[in-house]
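User: Show me an example of a complex going from sequences to structure tokens.

Assistant: Sure. Here are the input components:
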Amino acid sequence: MANVRITHAVDPKLNHNCEGMHIADYILEEVILPPTHKEKARKCVRIVLTGKNFRAVAQPLLAFVGKTPVRFIRISPDERSVEGILLDMPEDGAHVDVVLGDQDHARHPRSFKKEMIRRIKS
Amino acid sequence: MSSKFNISGIVRERESGLSLADLQVKAYDKDLLYDDLLGNARTDKAGRFEINYEGEDFRELFDKRPDIYFKIMDPAGERILHTTAHSVRWNAGVKEHFEIEIPAHKLPPKKDLTVTLVDAHGKHKSDFEIAESLMINIKGLAQNTPYRFSLSDEAEGEVFHVTLISNRFGVIAPTVLWPDIGIGVPGAGGKFAFETHEEALAAMANRSFQIEVTGDKKLVAKTRFTIRPEQSGSKLYPASRSGALQRGLLLGKDELVVQGKNFTPGALIDIYLVKRKSWQAGDRIEPIQNPDGSEVMTTVQLAPQEKNFNVVLWPREQLRTGSYHILARVTIPDEYLRGERKFRQTDILSDRFITSVVVRDDIFHYKPIHQGCVMATKEIAATMLWGVPEEVKYTNNFPKGTDVWAALDPAGLMPGAIGKKVKFYVIPHKTPGEWMSSSSLVSVPGSGSPEIITSSSCVNSNATLVWSNPQQAGKYDLVVDFGNNNPDPAQFIADGSFDPPADMIDGYLNVGFYVTDDPAIPGPFAVGQTSYNDPAVTIPAIGVWAASMGYPVVGDTPSGTLDLPMIAEVRYPAAMNGVNTPVSPAQASYPLVVIMHGMHNTVDPSYLGYNYLLDHLASHGFIAVSIDCNAINDINGMQDTRGHAILEHLSLLQSKNNNPGLLFGKIDMTHIGIMGHSRGGDGVVQAEVYNQTLGLGWNIKAVVPLAPTDFSGTSPTPLNLTTSKLFCIYGSNDADVWGGANPSTQYTGTGFRFYDRANVEKSMAFIYGAIHNRFNTLWGTEFYVDASSPKILSAAQHQLLLCGYMTACMQVYLQGRTEQIDYLTGELKIPAVSTVEVHNQFRWNSQTLDDFETAPALNLNSAGGAVTFANLDGSPQEDTVGVIDLYSPHQTKGLRLKWNTLTGTYQSQIPLSGSLRNLRNWNFLSFRVTQKVASAANPVNQLQDMHVRLTTAGGGNSRAIRVGYFGNIPFPYKPEYRLYDIVTMTFDLNSGYETENVKAAFKTIRIPLYAWTIKCLNVPIVDTSNVEFITFEFDHLPTGEIEIDDIEFTL
């Protein structure tokens, strides 16, 4: 009986969910979007979200900073990061959300601030 | 430290109990994905074997104890003779012993003639007890030959004789010759047919009977058996209160009384009613439950001198239809684990080989023609599943070479038909005109016409082989000729004529059974394998916009384009198996099938996950190509980019067809089929839309979206298909493209919407228990599926279904094999997975009476005829089905009807306009129907049903046909998902919002119009050249709520 482990209940407040989508962090940096036949080159903001369970499935994975959608989303092969472009500048205080269709929805606790964007030196 | 495990056992022939030497025994641990081989051994002279293994041999994550089953191989280890995979011993201990019984017909054939008598427990015997069932098994006969079995008694002479036919191996598999020896049907005739055990025993104890087998008027074998003077061991029987054996009970009339005999005096006995199954020690006992949740069980306390008892186990008011066994456990008060729900070796079972008791409903209630006297039933033609015990499986689809059995379910027999002798005939399916001119029965060449004596006990007692190894594809009926209908089987004379109401038929109103080419088994071609990796092409990547849902453009790139590497895996009909072997010269060229995968992480080469399908299609004469779309997945690409990708690959394949190389001149570019999975399904539809709208001229004949998204359906003007044929496949338990909680959130859409929007010949298979990912071998199981649910189909089942349906579809539309269309209409199921529930929609050329899209008012149908209704629960509702029913996955308008009385009707008039009332150019009455989800009017888990009446114009003849005979209306499937429950913060099964993904899924019911014109005693014939009314009569179930769409007459 020497190896008996004492187990403890997990506090529900921990909201522990290993299987769900999770945003661990995100970074923002200013980049130049190359010109297309419709638009000239322009500055925009690249956002990279890291975490886990960003599933590449039939349901579309969408990301938003407040009401500003993250465009040109790409999910990394290991499904642990998502990157895309903000064509418009979100409002300060906007939440950063990732939505998997109607199946899952994750939000990062740190809200957006323009000062978080790493600017291009020019 | 590793644990050591030991398995020992013995292998016997089931019927004789003889041990089987020199067979290879392989033990496996059953796992979710791949079963582990634990070890193997060879049986010794006594049939014994022993296998030792260690924990590492089976242990996976969470796997602490093995789940053991066996494969028994022939002495060379080349052929599997038998598997126990259907009766796994779960969580086996360190030391386990097994007794494995193999049916004799599975063993390598013996050259000598052997006759074996077998009892209802599968044991070889030469003396039988009263009320046992005597079965016979013979090997070494001539192939496909009728044999006469005469059973006689020295004093009484011949008791009865029957005729059975041998199969292609010269074997008569165990077949019941004399059910319930000595016990007859009260009131019926026949020798040695007593009402009670006591009477039978008094008259028959120690009597000896002889069985003579004659073929071609020569005696080929004879054997004897005797009747034991007393009963051995404790026995259980279903009985009447008077003590007569009573295996068939009628709902609403009878009660189930259990008779126990020969128990220990004074014993305390727990008695349970359980489902009929193959019982093995350790099986879980799940007593039948009453509607109030209580279990059907009782306890009997015998008096000190008492050995027998009669007890009511199931009162009349609680009885429910089904096939049951009775199980008893002798116990003592306060016994430890007295109520343990595991079957023990010491438990007493009423029967093993046959069903103990059958509760049936009033069969008049289920007759296909209302008040008609034709005993048409779908349940005669059957296959025999060889297990322990054998199991009859009714089917209408016999792939060439599959033995056809006739099996009369006692639940479907009129009381007066029990105990009589009958003769079976397999005949070509006849038209009403052919029946009108002649009722004579001429068996199809190659089939037999066996004779048996009907029993009330079990379908196995009424089962006999009627056609071994059929090779002639076609449509057939199976007729049961009661001949002179004599209650004494010895006096039976067949009359070779179909004479309702006594005679029965599987067919008549529709095809009884089909002999077919099974599209799910590999075809005749060798398979060649190649691939290509050509330079990338630039295609548009515009993405789609779901602005109405508040979502941004998805799937685009900053440049609006994408460089797509042209990579694909190819299989083709070849001269010989191998890589880059020459294309088969059997045909000048072969139709092309292009397959596109869907969205998935780009680590996996998703396009290789359909290699099994490519191989299968190639073996059937298609050049099958699976294209790599990971570049599209990398940008989260949608159907626009995917559609362009398909078209680019068609260009490349045309180039390969036009230029020297392996495929030079071998691709039939005039017959192209495209199939896409998930977002690929959206992509193939979009490819065809581009092909049509841009006038590209690709000869795409068939489009198959598999579990497709439908993002195009969210745009203000959803895209329609207008030329090529559409066949959609979708699983009811899809946990990725699951359709959303209700129409307002269904922005991903499902294949139902494609089906609704297609203005072409179209069909859809809605497969219960199928999920999203398992059609691709690299995708595993999607996260939200509750993989532990028994409702979820295995990966192998998914692949069989896809191979079968894809092949059938491409055979119809690319090879012109129109007979395979019955797989798309739902008339035929894929044989190897025919137990999987599939509900089909199908629509082609038709004369629409009401599609509910164009009617200006509830009182008018689309054709302009009057609509009336009576005695319904509220007014019918005609609207977009998503408004009528929040759980509808459809995009069309439809009709909702609710009733709470058996007199409710809904009538639609065919207007007197042109030749609309002349239906003779049409073959079917067709409509789509579903039960309304979450309606209290629909009894839980029950089928809905109703009659449809056609009435000749001017108040002429009318006839009502039961819908359920031609297609059931199922209770909506409840998906089983594992979802994160925000309230409990756990991944729960079957809680939370997954219940909102139940779907009110339409299925198409097609009733042959000749059901209203074929002759039927007591019921007039409708003049289908002048029909005025179609009336739905809700007189089958007292309450219900359904939705209906597309009432029409079709080819």
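The lines above are the inputs; the final block is the predicted structure for all two components together. The interface with chain B takes residues 12, 15-17, 19-20, 33-34, 36, 38, 55-62, 69, 71-75, 77-79, 85, 101-104 of chain A (CB under 8 Å).
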